[in-house]
Amino acid sequence: MALEKIPNIELNNGTSIPAFGLGTWKSLPNQVSQAVKDAIDLGYRHFDCAFVYENENEVGAAIKEKIEEGVVSREDLFIVSKLWNTFHRPDLVEPAIRKSLENFGLEYLDAYLIHFPMAAQEGDALHPTNDDGILIASDVDYLDTYKEMEKLVDKGLTKSIGVSNFNKAQIERILENCTIPPVINQVECHPYLSQEKLIEYCKSKNIAITAYSPFASPDSPFRKPGGTFMPKFFFYSISNRLAR
């Protein structure tokens, strides 16, 4: 049974995003492709992805199959991916999106977001840590990263750019120093973390909010000792330092 028609939300650059989308975080290997195909058949057109989820190729294979079947066209879909922390250095930004596009088998993304407002040590490890298991930060300023993201729009590699997990102060720095305002700020948002003040601020700047973990994600690695994602206390300490 197909979903009712999902309404679109107009973004500040004139593009539109379906209000309801399928997230691909924590999708099990060899299962996300079928989930994406089923979602397309049901009426989903918005898919939220990221390089660090390590399943862009499976998502891309499902999209390719549904396009070849004539179920959808590329233009029907809104595909989001995110720049991971280890690729914040300006010279790594364009190669990172090109790698994601290669994974998906696509020529462009509909939106490309900075995943977190902090940089991690550049290199092959997605989660570089020291001997104590603490994430090793890089001193790259997210403002320099965002300025490089703007060039991706000019090159046609993505239609829109935005941010994820950014607070008010960090967004204000971008708006004060950059040319293209973010179309989206993607943040954790649910009844236990309502984000009312941040939502009101973004609304005042015509920046859409995408809510992730809308059911509070009780199995989130943020809540598990020894999880593969960075501890929240470390993320917030770094992001607050960069905001000043």
TrEMBL record:
Gene3D superfamilies referenced in this protein's UniProt entry, alphabetically: NADP-dependent oxidoreductase domain
Domain NADP-dependent oxidoreductase: residue ranges: 21-217
PROSITE patterns, sorted: ALDOKETO_REDUCTASE_1, ALDOKETO_REDUCTASE_2
InterPro entries associated with the record: AKR, Aldo/ket_reductase_CS, NAD(P)_OxRdtase_dom_sf, NADP_OxRdtase_dom
SUPFAM superfamilies tied to this protein: NAD(P)-linked oxidoreductase (SSF51430)
UniProt xrefs under Pfam families: Aldo_ket_red (PF00248)
Record protein name field: NADP-dependent oxidoreductase domain-containing protein
